[in-house]
């Protein structure tokens, strides 16, 4: 979709701190995390929300999130990985995957701007865990 910021990230018209992708999905760090390591997992085909995805793609999206959860948790040293679906920020289907140490940490009012240097350092840590960690 022409004006969709996530479609532009997928097309690499806008840079992102990507940590993982395959032919169908992309996971990258949000620039306004509630906690360090806050990822967005998106399908590469535009859909207004996760619930608008075809059933198979919907299932694959959550399986991709499952596959990233252990390396994300290990990379960030968090107690859990939380997941949020709400879709108010950008009308392109996305899951929030957030390293958390308590239930209130998923509150979106905790969002803050992260510096490019911080985002790149965190992205490197997560990419390294995905590629080299044992899960
Ligand atoms: Zn889009």
Strand-pairing-aware structural class: alpha+beta
CATH topology descriptor: HIT family, subunit A
Q: Give helix and strand order, one letter per element, not per position.
A: HEEEHEEH
Order the strands across the largest sheet as they lie in space: 1-2-3-5-4
CATH class: Alpha Beta
Bound molecules: zinc ion
Sheet-strand content, in percent, reads 15-25%
Silhouette: globular
Number of domains: 1
Query: Taking Cα atoms only, what radius of gyration do you get, to the nearest Å?
Result: 14 Å
Question: Roughly how much helix do the residues carry, as a percent range?
Answer: 25-40%
Query: How far apart lie the N and C ends?
Result: 36 Å
Helices and strands in order, then pairings?
Layout (H helix, E strand, L loop, with lengths): L4 H6 L6 E5 L3 E5 L9 E5 L11 H22 L3 E5 L10 E6 L15 H17 L3
Antiparallel strand pairs: 1-2, 2-3, 3-5, 4-5
Helix pairs in contact: 2-3
Bound molecules: zinc ion.
Structural write-up:
The protein is α+β, with helices and mostly antiparallel strands and 135 residues long. The chain has one domain: HIT-like (HIT family, subunit A, 2-Layer Sandwich), CATH 3.30.428.10. Helices cover 33% and strands 19% of the residues. It has 3 helices and 5 strands, in the order αβββαββα. A 5-stranded antiparallel beta sheet has the order 1-2-3-5-4. The longest helix has 22 residues. The model has no long low-confidence stretch (mean pLDDT 96). Bound molecules: zinc ion. Zinc ion binds next to helix 1.
